[in-house]
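Design a sequence for this backbone.
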């Protein structure tokens, strides 16, 4: 079943998450129509290879053309129209930057895998539960309802101001008419009655002025209360959700809803401001003793301007945090002289501001780093798929100043990766006589000068965003707080779901907890930063985080399909694996990550001796060097072991608990095993076809020296001849492999 088919079977709450990251940058129609083709391409590799990305973009457009031809034959007018529009959009948007669409599609596929993994997890962690709190959802609905009510109130007040204007014009006309009469005419009974009517009209005018001012005051008060309480909380919640999403958590939505609220409030405030200007205009034409306009209007206008200043300042946000396109799963880690992207949005979307706001990007003022590249750009509504007022910097790169570079010789690797910096942005809004200076900053970033620093730098980003919602605590690592282990384990599971497509289950997390704490129970355990990332594991030359990062790298590069299918138990101790295997059928095996070797994976199987005793065998861990030579699924298929005087055989029969090996891994074999043939049946040009065959010898004497490798290049035909003419002892000498005997 394709990944897209699995996505379509998700519950509605997960489908809503999928819907959030498909837009005109990569339309869902294309994802649906070209599902299998898209999943068959290596978009992640193309995101770092312009030539490959160019070819993939061309092939994508060809695939769209083929779909167009198909739907044209079916005379599906709507789909024809949409596909033509999408093709034009894709070609225009990515013709000059094909790597950008490779990054987008790679990220979409990764997010799909993360959501599929989250859907398969039986229990949500504490952080994810807090982000989906029903109280938060209720507040979101209340905010939207109140904003709508405020907008309606402001529009109704417009009608009151218009009525007041019409009433005053009538009064003014009738009053001037009387004033134009001769003095003798003014003493007539009719004129006196008219004067009484005018006095009554003036009283009504006074009442209506007070009523309008009161209504304007109520609208301003409602906006003030909403901004001070619920809207501020909504914005802070969004920023917290963004922090969590940056370290692998659920996608953060809601920015479009916030934009709608901010825009409606800004429109309402400008509407109130125009109403106050209209009252000032009416004041210049008519005033009287006790007139409420000159007393109340200045205070109301000052309050409106104050609210507009605050609304604009809060609306300037970093929509997408700084990230190198080469490492989309590691945002906020920036390498010197490598480009990164960052996107900002103004949540107040007014047409008058399109291309009128120029944003300048700088780095924090320690004079150690400067930003190179285009660091001033105008915000516009054309580049974003949803038409938001935004700007994306795509060609910024940090550069270390020479004077600083020469003075850091005494800094260790931890000092480098625990030093936090900030990318700052500033602009100015000039609108309707108001000038408002805006500033915002990215979440803290870590600068590295070498890719080898990336793992520890990413650990710093994880720890910061897990531990605090303070967006600008650059001195955080002067005294980093401890983290609640249950929350940390949840974040570690996110590393696997976001980076390699499948999160960790409760048993795997329990093993990690025990490795970190040495305890089976870890409720409310507080783990220190040093324990996580700086202190070596007991008896090892590496830290917990370095060990875990090496496993992530191993999965990503060598065993990803097996991991996604759930066939790698991975995190299980030697003691636990023996408990799991001891009562199983001989030949039952499981796959686990090495605890002593960085980035190693091994398999252990259970066997039964002649006397009925159970024994276990664990092969020496395979690392990335060996797995680069031979796929792990093929190793499991072709693995042979020589025991005593028996002929070589594959001891691996069932993947724990009882899955036939070929059923579990068959679809991942690179090819079918070669039929054993004699040398005379050799391949082309007179050569015998050859393959790697992993062979091991179980030593009866544990003191026998172990050989350095468990792989031997040997063709099937040569192996057949050896079995015909040589004894098992001689074969054992030839293969020179080893296996740990437990």
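Sequence:
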């Amino acid at each position: 079943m394709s990944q897209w088919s699995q996505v379509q079977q998700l519950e509605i709450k997960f489908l809503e998450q999928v819907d959030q990251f498909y837009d005109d940058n990569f339309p869902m129609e294309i994802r649906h129509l070209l599902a299998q083709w898209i999943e068959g391409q290596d978009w992640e590799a193309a995101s770092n290879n312009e030539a490959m990305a160019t070819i993939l973009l061309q092939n994508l457009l060809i695939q769209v053309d083929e779909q167009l031809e198909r739907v044209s034959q079916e005379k599906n007018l709507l789909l024809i129209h949409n596909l033509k529009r999408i093709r034009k959009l894709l070609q225009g948007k990515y013709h000059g930057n094909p790597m950008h669409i490779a990054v987008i599609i790679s990220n979409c596929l990764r997010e799909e895998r993360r959501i599929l993994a989250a859907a398969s997890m039986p229990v949500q962690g504490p952080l994810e539960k807090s982000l989906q709190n029903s109280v938060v959802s209720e507040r979101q609905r209340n905010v939207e309802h109140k904003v709508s009510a405020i907008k309606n109130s402001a529009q109704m007040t417009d009608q009151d101001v218009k009525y007041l204007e019409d009433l005053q014009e009538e009064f003014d006309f009738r009053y001037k008419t009387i004033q134009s009469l001769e003095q003798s005419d003014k003493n007539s009974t009719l004129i006196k009655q008219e004067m009484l009517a005018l006095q009554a009209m003036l009283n009504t005018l006074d009442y209506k002025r007070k009523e309008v001012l009161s209504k304007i005051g109520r609208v301003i008060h409602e906006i003030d209360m909403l901004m001070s309480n619920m809207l501020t909380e909504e914005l802070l919640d969004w920023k917290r959700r963004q922090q969590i999403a940056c370290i692998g958590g659920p996608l953060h939505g809601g920015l479009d809803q916030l934009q709608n609220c901010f825009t409606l409030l800004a429109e309402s405030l400008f509407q109130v401001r125009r109403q106050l200007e209209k009252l000032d205009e009416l004041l210049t034409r008519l005033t009287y003793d006790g007139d409420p306009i000159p007393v109340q209007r200045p205070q109301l206008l000052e309050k409106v301007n104050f609210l507009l200043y605050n609304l604009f300042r809060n609306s300037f946000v970093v929509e997408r945090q700084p990230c190198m396109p080469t490492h989309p799963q590691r945002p906020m880690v920036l390498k010197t002289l490598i480009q990164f992207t960052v996107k900002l949005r103004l949540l107040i979307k007014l047409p008058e501001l399109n291309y009128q706001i120029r944003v300048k990007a700088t780095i924090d003022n320690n004079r150690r780093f400067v930003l190179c590249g285009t660091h001033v750009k105008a915000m516009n509504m054309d580049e974003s798929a949803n038409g938001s007022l935004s700007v994306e910097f795509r060609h910024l790169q940090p550069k270390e100043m020479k004077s600083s570079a020469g003075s850091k010789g005494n800094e260790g690797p931890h000092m480098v990766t625990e030093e936090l910096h900030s990318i700052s942005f500033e602009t100015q809004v000039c609108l309707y006589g108001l000038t408002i200076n805006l500033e915002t900053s990215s979440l803290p970033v870590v600068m590295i000068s070498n890719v080898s620093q990336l793992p520890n730098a990413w650990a710093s980003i994880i720890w910061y965003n897990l531990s605090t919602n303070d967006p600008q605590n650059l001195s955080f690592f002067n005294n980093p707080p401890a983290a609640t282990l249950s929350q940390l384990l949840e974040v570690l599971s996110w590393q696997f779901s976001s980076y390699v497509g499948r999160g960790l289950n409760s048993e795997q997390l329990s093993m990690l907890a025990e490795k970190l704490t040495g305890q089976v129970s870890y409720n409310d355990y507080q783990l220190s930063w040093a324990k996580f990332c700086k202190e070596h594991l007991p008896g090892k030359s590496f830290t917990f985080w370095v060990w875990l990062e090496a496993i992530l790298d191993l999965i990503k590069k060598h065993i990803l399909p097996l991991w996604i299918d759930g066939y790698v138990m991975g995190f299980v101790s030697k003691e636990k694996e023996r408990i799991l295997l001891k009562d199983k059928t001989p030949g039952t095996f499981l796959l686990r990550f090495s605890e002593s070797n960085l980035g190693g994976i091994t398999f252990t199987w259970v066997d039964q001796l002649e006397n009925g005793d159970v024994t276990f065998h664990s092969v020496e861990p395979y690392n990335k060097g060996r797995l680069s030579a031979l796929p792990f699924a093929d190793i499991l298929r072709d693995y042979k072991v020589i025991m005593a005087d028996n002929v070589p055989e594959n001891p691996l029969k069932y993947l724990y608990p009882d899955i036939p090996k070929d059923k579990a891994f068959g679809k991942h074999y690179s090819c079918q095993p070669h039929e054993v043939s004699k040398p005379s049946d050799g391949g082309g040009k007179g050569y015998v076809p050859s393959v790697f065959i992993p062979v091991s010898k179980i030593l009866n004497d544990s003191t026998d020296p172990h050989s350095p490798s468990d792989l031997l290049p040997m063709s099937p035909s040569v192996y057949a001849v050896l079995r015909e003419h040589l004894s098992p002892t001689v074969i054992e000498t030839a293969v020179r492999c080893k296996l740990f005997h437990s």
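Residues 157 and 722 are 97 Å apart (CA to CA).
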